[in-house]
Amino acid sequence: MRWFWIDRFTEFESGRRATGVKTVSLSEEHIHDFLPATATMPNSLIIEGMAQTAGLLAGEHYGFQESVILAKIGKVQFHARATPGDTLTYRAELTTIDESGARAEITSHIEDRLQAEMEVLFAHADIDREGAGGGLFDERDFAITLRCLGMYDVGRTADGERIKMPHHLAVAEGSVTEA
Amino acid sequence: MATSEEIFQKVQEALVEALAVDDDEVTPEATLVGDLGAESIDFLDIVFRLEKSFGISIQKGELFPEDILTNADYVVDGKINEAGLAILKERMPFADLSKFEENPEVQEFATGLTVQDMCNFVENKLNEAA
Predict the structure, then answer these.
(1) Whole-model pTM?
(2) Domain A8-127, what fold?
(3) Is CB count within 10 Å lower at the N or C end of chain B?
């Protein structure tokens, strides 16, 4: 099982905000393991999806040169269950970001209805590393994941320019050769 | 320039939000770690909130000098030496380090930091910026 809790970015404004969607499906195994009598997406995985939306936004801001660690969930509140057939829209906004970390506010909606809201804190790990993964994950896999999520299809800077995959990830992906 | 009272209120608000404590727990003498339950990651959260609240920029290690507390030149057998204490006092004019000096164990450093120390830090920063 791969640990992806958003399916696609629908909006991505570098360094500021992003919108991602997660479609809840009856065929997902954890739906059946969680509450046997009633198909419900676990709130912990909604938290993870919201955090991934904001965390990738924070990571992209520094070209994925830093490891972004989910450090603290300050507040989280759920207003409704998420069930198969729902599409969760996660909207993340970075309220602060610098070299030491980032703070973000994220909401989850099912259509127009507010389903959950959260404040998180990320720390940028100051570790010796081999690429953005810090040796924790493969850069080629990460690059492919970002493509699948549509980050570089919808991603824009504040000026409206398309964002590009950082060179070191593009090399790992194989879309460019080492300079 | 903000008054001491205004500074205290904004610092109090930042700590209430970051540490999920009540207003009346955040007194000037309260220690962040001992009384208010702050953990290391909370300091990053507090720094971000203070920066936003006061429009100041706080560099890494400015409030909490990790570089001194982990430097082998200043730390011997888990305690800060004379040279380390001198540098700490220079870097942290806002903090009352007298209690820490009596027993300068690195692990105890954070436990002595009070709300008043935070207010003094902010006042220092605002004076520098003015």
Answers:
(1) 0.86
(2) Thiol Ester Dehydrase; Chain A (3.10.129)
(3) C
A127, A132, A152 from A73: Cα distances, Å: 22, 23, 28
**Over the stretch A59-94, which tens digit does the pLDDT of each residue have?**
999 999 888 999 999 899 999 999 999 999 999 999
- For residue B17, list chain A residues with Cβ-Cβ distance below 8 A: 74
d(CA A48, CA A128) in angstroms, rounded, equals 26
Q: Which residues of B touch A (CB under 8 A)?
A: 17-18, 20, 41-42, 44-45, 47-48, 51-52, 60
Alpha carbon distance A163, A153 (integer Å):
9
Q: What is the Cβ-side half-sphere exposure of residue A87, based on CA atoms within 13 angstroms? A: 11
Are B51 and A72 a contacting pair at CB < 8 A? no
The reply to whether ipTM tops 0.85 is: no
Q: Which domains does chain B have, with CATH numbers?
A: 4-129 (1.10.1200.10)
Classify burial at A179, counting beta carbons within 10 Å of its beta carbon; exposed 0-12, middle 13-18, buried 19 or more: exposed
Element (H, E) at A120: strand A113-125
